[in-house]
């Protein structure tokens, strides 16, 4: 068995990029080193944020202690459903999103009624849906949504509740 080793001559900066001369080569190399060190710093910082807290973790409701946060989360969801801070935060977020969706619906209805259309009837047919897509002006709808008064929102909810009562009867 014969092994062949090929030795390649390492190219100089001038051979790689002849347009660079003297100090330009040093500036480019220094810039690349600084860029690399910045990337390394950011990478190390991102890794340091993922450090897990050490236990024990204690339940705020019943004082029970757990060695891992995951175990405490499971305990909270089974033993005290709806009482954790995380659950309350998520519930509030869902509620605010629902309100924003309803405000958007009210704004769309108002926008199309100003154009002379009934938004709900347009949604019933494929042609109506295409008309909505063609004529929708998102900027104007956003403005209408911001300008909605509490009375308009309350009226919408009252109308919606009345419609649901009529459907049930």
Could you characterize what this model shows?
The chain is mostly helical and 169 residues long. It is built from 8 helices and 2 strands, in the order H-H-E-E-H-H-H-H-H-H. A two-stranded antiparallel ribbon has the order 1-2. The longest helix has 30 residues, at 85-114.
- DSSP E strands, number: 2
Low-confidence stretches: none
DSSP strand content: under 5%
Give the overall average pLDDT: 78
Outline the biggest β-sheet: 2 strands, antiparallel
The string of secondary-structure elements, in order, is: HHEEHHHHHH
- Approximate shape: flat
If strands are numbered along the chain, what order do they take across the biggest sheet? Answer: 1-2
Structural class: mainly alpha
Q: Determine Rg (CA atoms, Å).
A: 32 Å
Report helical residue fraction: 55-70%
Oligomer: single chain
User: How many alpha or pi helices?
Assistant: 8
N-to-C CA distance: 94 Å
Question: What are the main properties of this structure?
Answer:
single chain; mainly alpha; 2 strands
Short description:
By secondary structure, the chain is mostly helical.
Task: Annotate the secondary structure layout.
Blueprint: H1 13-16, H2 23-48, E1 57-58, E2 65-66, H3 69-79, H4 85-114, H5 119-124, H6 126-135, H7 138-147, H8 150-168
Antiparallel strand pairs: 1-2
Helix pairs in contact: 4-7
